[in-house]
Structures are given as C-alpha cells and as structure tokens.
Amino acid sequence: MTHTVDTTQELAAFLRARRERLDPRDFGLPQRRHSRRTPGLRREEVAELAGVSTDYVVRLEQGRGLRPSAEVLEALAGALRLAPDERAYLFDLAQQRAPAIGKPASTADPALVRLVADLAPLPAMLVNHRYDILAWNHEMSRVLVDFEKLPPRQRNSMWMCLMHPRMRDGFYVDRETILREGIADLRAAWAAHPEDQVLADLIAEFIAADTEFATMWDQRDVRVNGRGTKVLRHPEVGRMAVQFEVLMPLQDPDQRLVIYRAVDPESQSALDRLCAE
C-alpha cells in the first residue's frame, strides 16, 4: 500500500523538478565561466525572480514544513513559468485551494446514465477523477472494450491502457503520448484528492506493474486534458481517428463526461460499421 499524498515532500520535489527543466538562456541570465553543476536555474536565480529569499526557496525544496501563501505561490509560478494546470497543481499541493467535498463518486447518477445513453450514436462514457468508468453507451463499448465483461475494478481507462491485452499492445497508434497525457491528468487529480487512498493504491499498482508508467510518473508532468485526438488501430475496422471532448457536470464536478467524434469521413465510416452491430 502506498501512502496518500505527502504534500510537503511532493511540493519540494515538484519545485525542484520544475526549476531544473528551465533553460537559463530563456531568462537572459549571464553566462558563467564554469559549467553549471545542476540543470536548469539555480535556487538563488529562482528566488530573485520570485522576489523571495534564497533560504526560503532552499527550505521549500527541502520539504521543511513551510506553508507558502497564495501570493508567494503566484510569484513562484511566474518565476518557474508554470502552465495553468501546473499552477493549479502547485496550489493544490500547498493546500491553498478548497479540498473536494464528500467522497469520490463510485456510481453514476441515474440522470447522467441516461444522458450517456442519449448521446448515441456518439460514443460516450462517464468517468471519475480516478478514471473509473461509471457509465457508458453501446457505441463506446464497441470502440474500446465490452465493459460488461470486465470486473468492476478493471473498468478503469488507465488500467486498460496499461494492462488490458487488447489496448496495451498496438491499439493506440501513439500509445506513448496517450499514456503521458493520461498520467499528467492523473497527477493533477492525485494532488486535488490528497486523502483518496484508493487512488494512491491504484497509482502504486501502476508504478509496480509498468516501468513506462513509473518513469513518466516520476517526471511530474501536470496537465488536465479536456480535448484531443486519438488514432486507434481497431481490430475489427482498422485505423480510426477520433476527437475526444471532456465535459464536467456542474452537479457532479468529480465526474467527467467523455465524448468521441470521428475526425474524418473514413473514420466516421469505420465508426458507423462498428456501432451498427
């Protein structure tokens, strides 16, 4: 079993990782005679950019129990040039955003189940922040897998990507990108739900079972993916490109409605043939 999020240590590791990825040349910093011993910016350079003391940055990166204010976090986010999702992740780790209310959803509201069904012929499914699949329509089960035949614990889109034989080997044309984006999204959910032991255990299982997942998780990329394209090698109809759109119900913000649409006429034809059965 893995512990839930140790926010102090994760905040320290995240700040170090983001500092080390920066290129000093992008900041117009003067060249030094001696080569830098570590990649990225130095701590004193980040401190100067953020308007805080070097000692403060050192203590943050050492996980020494500091609770930075929202103003300091904003300054650090600017100094480290964090993307919006990374900034939100930083604020979550520093516990400067309100925590999620109530227990994570493990079942879908009947109204959302009906909505998923009514979206046909568009493939649609409802997931929670763990990627547990809570509801789906016939079209989505034809595109991905027959969810009814899976044990409930395996009805998880990340689990399927990593471990389901059909989806693990060759189903996605660019599996590395799909996996990397999914992990970046999952890391944001992990920080937003620091007390979710089920999620922590699931991530620990993925790390132990898949070296690629473990490597990407350790890179600490953070990005919430609301829209994108996936190219599939479907075993029944061949190559098919779909665009996905992710919507969040206001009444159930822990859940996400995922909708697929064909990208081009050839993909639409393949999708029509597939879902006609």
From TrEMBL:
Question: Transmembrane ranges?
Answer: none
Q: Which PROSITE patterns match?
A: HTH_CROC1
Q: Which CDD domains match?
A: HTH_XRE
Q: In this protein, which residues make up the domain named HTH cro/C1-type?
A: 40-87
Listed name of the protein: Helix-turn-helix transcriptional regulator
